[in-house]
Design brief:
The chain is globular and about 55 Å long. The chain has helices at about 30-45, 55-60, 65-80, 110-115, 125-145, 175-185, 205-210, 260-275, 305-310, 330-345; strands spanning about 1-5, 15-20, 20-25, 45-50, 150-155, 190-195, 215-220, 245-250, 280-285, 320. α1 (about 30-45) runs parallel beside α10, α5 (about 125-145) runs parallel beside α6 (about 175-185) and α9 runs parallel beside α10. With about 350 residues, it is α/β, with parallel strands linked by helices.
Length: about 350
């Protein structure tokens, strides 16, 4: 399988995040992608460097002011106080209901809150370079698929599916799956389906396409009544306006095992087949794995092979984009299982 990787991902290496009120090492670590790259090479893949500039597509899926903030954020943070190079910026105030989000405060921490959905998305010195290279990898993968490739895997981190039109969140800054989707649309696909199999609902992707009839978004995830991101991903969200009927959420309870998970996959695939897409984007989160430290589904490593096979049976030109998966040492083999299952189908 053709694989694009992100040669700059290691520059995004924040030291810690907050978990149940405690400061802990980041679950979303450079080691994740390092393990996937090692497993891909052992499987026989060579990894391609991005060869497309995603800038025009980025402007189609994210707001201009958010992109501008993200690109300059680390420099603004450094300018705030001497010594900030070794400190992580941390949002502490958000424009929730009744508060104004139509202008940028002069205060950096206020701007950080304006553009964040949570306090769990740490910025580092190399974040912009890493997320831009990740978007370039996603656009490169889409270009190959638009050019006739059967399937291309985009091996990148940090993930993207929680990032919305104008906000970061859930370790995500740029929505790589949305970039791939929009790039496929730009290059001739009339309709694109996005299937998000990460444990967490892809709120960002849903929001970016919620009013659009040319993109169908389906997601199988931990029920947001108890799981992050809590405030989106419920079964009654079916799309609006021209996007009415183009959004499918399949929340499942914590503890869900393979048999039930694959029933949901079947429902998602049936709806995707009915949509009549020209191409498929898979938000490939592997945190449904039973060993994942922050998620609560119970898929075994071997279950990722039939997952890949079922995705292939949709018989659509496919971009697969890496999202979550925090059992870092097992992440590589689980990713290869999906890709191998896809190719064997
Ligand atoms: C990203 B992806 C906040 C901790 C909450 C949210 C999990 C993000 C998962 N202090 N972390 O969907 O795998
Ligand atoms: Zn996840």
């Amino acid at each position: 399988m053709l694989v694009y990787h992100n040669p700059l991902h290691q520059g995004h290496a924040p030291a810690h995040e907050f978990f149940r009120g405690e400061r802990v090492p980041c679950f979303e670590s450079p080691a994740r992608a390092d393990h996937v790259e090692a497993s891909l090479r052992a499987w026989g893949c060579s990894l391609l460097a991005p060869d497309v500039d995603s800038t025009p597509v980025l402007r189609q899926v994210h707001s201009e002011r958010y992109l501008k903030f993200l690109e300059g954020a680390w420099q603004q943070w450094l300018a705030l106080a001497p010594g900030n190079a070794s400190v992580q910026p941390f949002p502490s105030v958000w424009p929730v209901r009744t508060l104004r989000s139509d202008f940028e405060s002069d205060n950096f921490i206020a701007r950080l809150g304006l553009y964040s959905m949570d306090n769990g998305t740490p910025l580092a010195s190399g974040t912009w370079a890493a997320v831009k290279a990740g978007a370039d990898a996603a656009a490169s993968a889409a270009a190959r698929v638009a050019g006739g490739a059967r399937a291309v895997f985009c091996c990148t981190r940090p993930p993207g599916h929680h990032a919305g039109p104008d906000f970061m969140g859930g370790y995500c800054f740029i929505n790589n799956a949305a970039v791939a989707t929009q790039a496929l649309r730009n290059q001739g696909a009339s309709r694109v389906a996005v299937l998000d199999v990460d444990y967490h609902h892809g709120n960002g992707t849903q929001s970016i396409f919620y009013h659009r009839g040319d993109v169908f978004f389906a997601s199988i995830h931990g029920d947001p009544r108890t799981e992050y991101p809590f405030f989106l991903g419920h079964a009654d969200e079916t799309g609006e306006g021209e996007g009415s009927g183009c959004n499918l959420n399949l929340p499942l309870p914590a503890g869900t095992t393979a048999a039930v998970w694959f029933e949901a996959l079947e429902r998602a695939c049936t709806r995707i087949a009915g949509f009549g897409a020209d191409a498929l984007v898979v938000s490939l989160g592997l945190d449904t794995y039973e060993g994942d430290p922050i998620s609560r589904f119970a898929l075994a490593s071997a279950d990722f092979c039939p997952m890949g096979a079922r995705l292939a049976q949709l018989n659509l030109p496919t971009v697969l984009v890496l999202e979550g998966g925090y059992a870092a040492a097992e992440l590589g083999i689980n990713a290869v299982h999906v890709l191998d299952g896809f190719e064997q189908a």
